[in-house]
Design brief:
There is one protein chain. The protein is an alpha/beta fold. Among the domains are: 5-91, Elongation Factor Tu (Ef-tu), domain 3 (Beta Barrel), CATH 2.40.30.10; 102-212, Rossmann fold, CATH 3.40.50. It is 28% helix and 30% strand. It has 9 helices and 15 strands. The protein has helices at residues 23-28, 70-76, 112-124, 144-150, 170-177, 192-202, 238-241, 252-259, 263-278, and strands at 5-12, 15-21, 34-38, 46-55, 60-66, 86-91, 102-108, 128-135, 153-158, 165-166, 185-189, 208-212, 228-231, 234-237, 244-246. The strands form 3 sheets. A 7-stranded mixed beta sheet has the order 10-9-8-7-11-12-15, with helices on both faces. The protein starts with a strand and ends in an 8-residue tail after the last helix.
């Protein structure tokens, strides 16, 4: 059945991997593109998730997501055999892949998942690929085996030092920028603040730095305008112009403000969802 969940695995606390039956998307997707899905026919919201991998033979795409709100919580409770009512893609512009030379790929938290197909494609194009990953602790490190198989150099970082280096991802990035063989290109995917400071780290060295943005999206076709960002002097729509942009031109402060615009409402709705799941007789007022 279309949009059927074929496989599910929990990778770490609140992080899940799913393979979905979507043969048309699997046959067309390219590194860097994403899908938008819905978990509920009637009142479900639409959320964007990057395609972490695809298998044309099986007709499947792989998504990796972290439970952060109502929809991702609903998604995490679905099992193989269940079907999603809506799944559209591939969306967005694919990553520009060529032999740049030396490339540093930085994935922060769940950002490691969308980085996987990009790093894979960059390696296949002949690049020397260094992969830096960041997580709060060892238990939250994901796709290590897959990333090590791609990387010429793999540098894991954790906030608490429980695995790899105890540092932010910007520390080894700066070391590489100051080395005898600095990167020709850097690409970063992760929390907005992480991407912002990766771009600020490379700015003095004039190293092109690409970031992949995950803003609020509704339709994914550029019509709603919810995903707009300021890039240099231009207004761009992440869903159709992106999701990847020059990190030195993105107005991260404005983007972060927009991302937080509905934070209080999202928090209340999630609390209501959790309350209803644990005690159907009680309804939290929002």
């Amino acid at each position: 059945m279309m949009n059927e969940i074929l496989y599910k695995k929990q990778l770490s606390q609140d992080v899940y991997l799913m393979r979905l039956y979507a043969p048309l998307i699997a046959g067309e997707r390219k590194a860097g593109q994403f899908i938008i899905l819905q978990t509920n026919d009637d009142v479900g919201e639409r959320i964007p998730l990057t395609i972490a991998d695809a298998d044309e033979t099986e007709g499947s795409i792989t998504i990796i997501f972290q439970v952060v709100g109502k929809t991702t919580s609903e998604l995490s409770k679905l099992e193989p055999g269940d079907c999603l009512p809506a799944l559209v893609g591939p969306l967005g512009q694919p990553t520009h892949i060529q032999n740049f030379g030396r490339v540093v790929c930085i994935g922060g938290g769940i950002g490691v998942a969308p980085m996987h197909p990009i790093a894979q494609a960059l390696k296949a194009a002949g690049n020397h690929v260094t992969i830096i990953t960041g997580a709060r602790n060892k238990e939250l490190v994901i796709l290590e085996k897959e990333m090590r198989a791609i990387a010429d150099e793999y540098i894991p970082c954790t906030d608490d030092g429980s695995y790899g280096r105890q540092s932010l991802v910007t520390v080894p990035l700066k070391e590489l920028c100051e080395s005898n063989e600095p990167p020709d290109m850097v690409i970063a995917i992760g929390p907005p603040v992480m991407m912002k400071f990766c771009a600020e780290t490379t700015r003095p060295y004039k190293i092109f730095t690409q970031v992949s943005l995950n803003t609020i999206m509704i339709d994914g076709t550029g019509m709603c305008g919810g995903c707009r960002v300021n890039v240099g002097k231009d207004v761009k729509f992440v869903c159709v112009d992106g999701p990847e942009f020059d990190g030195h031109l993105v107005d991260f402060d404005n983007m972060i403000l927009r991302l937080n615009a509905y934070k209080s409402i999202e928090t209340k709705k999630f609390k209501c969802f959790v309350q209803k799941a644990t005690d159907p007789q009680k309804t939290l007022q929002v």
